[in-house]
Amino acid sequence: MGSKVLIVDDEKLMRISLESQLRKEGYNVKSVDNALDGLKIVKSEEYDVVVTDLRLSGMGGIELLKDIKKYNQEIIVVIMTAYGTLESAVSAIKEGAYDYIAKPFSTDELIIKLQRALHYKNTTAEVNRLRKEIQAEFEFSNIIGNSEAMKKVIETVKSVSERDTTVLIKGESGTGKEKIAGAIHYHSNRRMGPFIRVSCAALNREILESELFGHEKGAFTGAVKTRRGRFELANGGSIFLDDIDDVPLDMQVKLLRVLQERTFERVGGEETLCVDVRVICATKKDLLEHIKEGYFREDLFYRLNVVPVNIPPLRQRKEDIPHLINYFLKKFVSQYEDALPSVSKEALDVLLAYDWPGNVRELENVIEHAIAFSKLKGISLETLPEYLRKLDVRTDLLSMNLSNKETINLQDALTEVEKKLIQWARQKANGNQVKMAEILGIPRTTLRNRLMKLQLFENATS
């Protein structure tokens, strides 16, 4: 069935003629001679386009337009107007009309406008659909974590979203910095504006400057036309600069100016451009150390670090792993089957024991891999990638990440490891000291002495 068009015109011959000719073109057409009846029909049936005369007896075309837009913004309105009232037609466009057509006009001229209007309507509907999908991706509910560290992150993000404050997100690769940046943007008053993402690490110095600030035609070899940069494209919205630590020192000066004044010039240009943009940055490195080493400007750091958001690595919030597993199972399974596959205890033990150097992104890939090999029988040790199947869970209980350590107190470390092992044994033995001693391979008297020394005695049973 063709697109539905409603014609509102009190000139009978015009109305009948348009209705007949548009039907021949495949449109589903209805016509009425007054605005009130037109409004009733629009509210009782779904119409794609309303073509209305500007001057009508009783309620005029402008009033009809306003009421239609109040009822449904997605309905396209085209205004018919006599030559002498073009100024009023322009006013109608300001009120939300898609276009106007001056009388007298040919049917072909109206059909062209209808085709353009319907294309615009379909494109707008698709853009809105995609925007809703993107916004759903960045809902707070998709930031998974019940650990205290993640609760603090979510609380900070919710607090800062509605403000235009500059945010610096800190975290290792794969921790979800882009998801946090998206949540900030899509819960702000800029949510209907663009969200422009730039990976500063992926571009060399020459390309990065042009990407950020644009360039004029002839600014350098290959600049065959003027090009807008990411800051211009982000006007009215937010720009997310990932890996800000990779921006060269000389370009940091220009970036500092944008943060301070919201002005810049394109590469090779002289005109000063102004932008209204919120800046969100992310780094996987310690910028204070970068400052000491001479790689990052201190004044730029304090401009960026207005509100810091620190995302902990997955190894520091392992209590969130079961929740993340469930989230990814729903993400990858829902489109194929109704029930989520179960996760065996052996597989879960490995997933909890592993240190996850790739963080949440690595866990997501592992779950997708496991589902691909599960054959609807659930997630087992056999469905995990080979490097995880080879993991010695018992040895991994003693593992620790020392990559960021310069010194360590050996006695404190040994005490912490001993405490973890006893707590692990207590959990396995449900607190029974005899079984705990057997699991740990030590005499029961030795276990009791260690429980007292580590102040764990009260939680164990005889």
From TrEMBL:
The keyword Transcription regulation applies. Residues 4-118 form the Response regulatory domain. InterPro entries: AAA+_ATPase, AAA_lid_NorR, CheY-like_superfamily, Homeodomain-like_sf, HTH_Fis, P-loop_NTPase, Sig_transdc_resp-reg_receiver, Sigma_54_int. GO terms for biological process: phosphorelay signal transduction system; regulation of DNA-templated transcription. Residues 143-372 form the Sigma-54 factor interaction domain. Keywords: ATP-binding, Nucleotide-binding, Phosphoprotein, Transcription, Transcription regulation, Two-component regulatory system. It comes from the Bacteria. GO terms for molecular function: ATP binding; sequence-specific DNA binding. Pfam families: AAA_lid_14 (PF25601), HTH_8 (PF02954), Response_reg (PF00072), Sigma54_activat (PF00158). The keyword Zinc does not apply. The modification 4-aspartylphosphate is found at D53. PANTHER family: C4-DICARBOXYLATE TRANSPORT TRANSCRIPTIONAL REGULATORY PROTEIN DCTD, TRANSCRIPTIONAL REGULATORY PROTEIN. This is Two-component response regulator.
